[in-house]
Automatic annotation (TrEMBL):
The keyword Signal applies. Gene3D superfamilies: 3.40.50.2300. It comes from Galactobacter valiniphilus. Keywords: Signal. GO terms for cellular component: outer membrane-bounded periplasmic space. Residues 46-319 form the Periplasmic binding protein domain. The keyword Signal applies. This is Sugar ABC transporter substrate-binding protein.
Length: 364
């Protein structure tokens, strides 16, 4: 798959420069990068360290890594840091390194807090693949595989504008913004991608944010916890809205989208136009019912497949395919990006044709 060329217009150059400054810069590469490992036994131990079950995609990933790695002949250990957060993840990774894994696949709770573990992995000759969330400010990460997070944000921003136009008549519109957890490296590209689309409309008065909260820090959701969204939205709606209508909410994922919709409902508001991500079952039902406006399909099966293919390539001593580089604040990490797909009521019936379980939900 060819990545969109970033350096073809002045606007793109500005965006690329901004991304580089924030440590999230991506650029295309036609070729693959540094040399791969010399290979390792076909039944090697592989460690997969996942964050918390903050959305359905992580639970799916656990099952898929277990089954796909076993099917490929490897011995997987798949663990969640869960409520133990970054310290638990550090301990689990330490134990995986001691157990003799050949590859570590890491979906970090906090991509900045694993530097000691990653240095130890590098010293032990273990290859490190950042999964879904990049590992930040370290040189000890070999590959990154993910859906294009900045693109996810852009799709969400555009969906919010389109949804407002379709459902709420002509503007100006009152909206609120929600971002993910600040310790998750993805929260920044999600938010910045969306704001690339929304900021000009805030500046020209089409969109009004009555809370006045428009920076990522002001709208972040610690731990991706829906309770935090509900508390924040309840307080904004009671203190800033009165009889004003809340027309839309930028939400970075489905779990938080549903929390925002609940809060609006509790405050007696009509259902606002709310974006999401992850194709969670409850949200697909809500989209079908004409409530949640959109989600983003990032098929976990394909992401795990791409990751397991990297592991297989490394086992065979081959260089895994990468199509881009992502700056993590220290190095440009060879990256394989998959394309996220926007889903609304308009395309939902077709969107999950290749996903047996979700297709049953949208085409019962
Ligand atoms: C993932 C999202 C998910 C969020 C919360 C992010 O890193 O990319 O798909 O919604 O974590 O679990």
């Amino acid at each position: 798959m060819r990545r969109r060329k970033l350096l073809t217009s002045a606007a793109a150059i500005t965006a690329a420069a901004a991304l580089a400054l924030t440590g999230c810069g991506r650029s295309d590469t036609g070729a693959s990068s540094s040399s791969a490992a010399a290979g390792f036994p076909a039944d090697a131990k592989i460690g997969v360290s996942l964050p918390a079950k903050t959305s359905e995609n992580w639970v799916l990933a656990e099952n898929l890594f277990n089954s796909d790695l076993k099917a490929a002949g490897f011995q997987p250990t798949v663990q969640f840091a869960g409520d133990g957060g970054a310290p638990a993840q550090q301990q689990q990774i330490d134990a995986m390194i001691s157990s003799g894994v050949k590859v570590l696949v890491i979906g970090a709770v906090d991509g900045k807090q694993l530097n000691t573990q990653l240095a130890a992995a590098k010293a032990a000759g273990i290859k490190v693949i950042a999964y879904d969330r990049n590992l930040q400010s370290t040189k000890d990460v070999d590959y990154y595989v993910a859906y294009d997070n900045f693109k996810v944000g852009e799709l969400q921003g555009q969906a919010l504008l389109d949804g407002l136009k379709a459902r709420k008549g002509s503007g100006p519109y009152n909206i609120e913004l929600i971002a993910g957890s600040n310790d998750d490296a993805n929260s920044k590209p999600f938010f910045e991608g969306a704001m690339k689309v929304l900021q000009p409309k805030i500046d020209d008065g089409t969109l009004k944010v009555l809370s006045g909260q428009t920076t990522q820090d002001q709208v972040a959701t610690q731990g991706w916890d829906p309770k935090n969204v509900q508390t924040r939205m309840d307080s904004i709606l009671s203190s800033k809205y009165g009889s004003a209508k809340l027309d839309g909410v930028l939400s970075p994922n489905d779990t938080l989208a549903r929390a925002a919709m609940r809060s609006a409902k509790d405050a007696g508001q009509e259902v606002p136009v709310v974006t999401g991500q992850d194709s969670e079952v409850e949200s697909l039902k809500s989209i079908l019912a004409g409530e949640q406006y959109s989600t983003i399909n990032k098929d976990t099966t394909n992401l795990v497949k791409a990751t397991v293919q990297m592991v297989k390539d490394l086992q065979a001593g081959k260089e895994p395919t990468t199509t881009a580089k992502t700056n993590n604040g220290t190095i440009d990490v060879p990256t394989q990006y998959l394309e996220p797909v926007l889903v609304t009521k308009e395309n939902i019936k077709d969107a999950y044709k290749n996903d047996e379980a979700l297709n049953k939900i949208v085409n019962p």
